[in-house]
Design goal:
- The protein is mainly alpha-helical.
- It has one domain: Fido-like domain (Fic-like fold).
- It contains 10 helices and no strands.
- The two termini are 29 Å apart.
- This is Fic family protein.
Length: 248
């Protein structure tokens, strides 16, 4: 299933370490596009250029404080993901709560990093998340799956399924989507893949694939969608390498 992706990943690994400034510019590009698209999927109205300006510390007129905080918080959450990858720390519920705390910081501090205490629904989805009193049990089951079966899977399958299972539980009042995409990339980046961007233009297919995974426990469509985004990111990195004469 992933033969071509594995081939491209091997080519990227062979080219490492990447030139310093090429790597820096790729990171900045991915941070911007990841932040813009992840927020836009959730309804943030900042354009990609406005998102770039906010990341540079400038306020955009006519936009809400929440929209500004969503950009800054997402940047900080990405930095936390990078820190986890750098330290090779195993995934834990504590990390997940910390990620969510960063996502919701200053937006809803009462519920930042705290499992919900009431029922929620996912707009447009057939799937209904579990009752709030089942969240701790479901999260424990998710972590058991991750450390037992999940850890043996290809990182694309593991990351996609972790994302889907987590967002199906919907453990937090708000910010589940952003947190789930951070978890997806955490798993990919641990295995040396570049981060992927779930594009806002693919939002409908993304939501439909997630709903199928929740209602039918069939993750194949969602895994395929993630795999396509993984290949896009690999192509971006490989094209940058091929244009750089300093790369062996």
């Amino acid at each position: 299933m992933f033969d071509e992706i594995n081939r491209k990943k091997a080519a990227l690994d062979t080219a490492r370490p990447l030139p310093k400034y090429t790597l820096k510019s790729l990171r900045e590009k991915m941070l911007l596009e990841w932040t813009y698209n992840s927020n836009a999927i959730e309804g943030n109205t900042l354009t990609i250029n406005e998102t770039k300006i906010v990341l540079e510390g400038i306020t955009v007129g006519g936009k809400t404080m929440r929209e500004h905080l969503e950009v800054i918080n997402h940047r900080d959450a990405i930095q936390y993901v990078e820190d986890i990858v750098h330290k090779s720390d195993p995934l834990s519920e504590w990390q997940i709560k910390n990620l969510h705390r960063l996502v919701l910081k200053g937006i809803d501090d009462e519920y930042a990093g705290v499992y919900r205490d009431q029922q929620v629904f996912i707009s447009g989805a057939q799937h209904t998340p579990p009752a709030h009193y089942l969240i701790s049990e479901n999260m424990t089951q998710m972590m058991s799956w991750y450390h037992d079966k999940g850890i043996k899977l290809h990182p694309i399958i593991r990351g996609a399924m972790l994302h889907a299972i987590f967002v199906g539980i919907h453990p937090f009042i708000d910010g589940n989507g952003r947190t789930s995409r951070l978890l997806l990339n955490l798993e990919l980046m641990k295995d040396g893949f570049p981060p992927v961007v779930i594009k806002v233009k693919n939002r409908l297919a993304y939501y439909e694939a997630l709903d199928i995974s929740h209602t039918k426990e069939d993750y194949s469509d969602f895994i395929q969608l993630v795999a396509e985004e993984v290949e896009d990111s690999l192509d971006l990195y490989l094209n940058a390498i091929n244009r750089n004469p300093e790369t062996p």
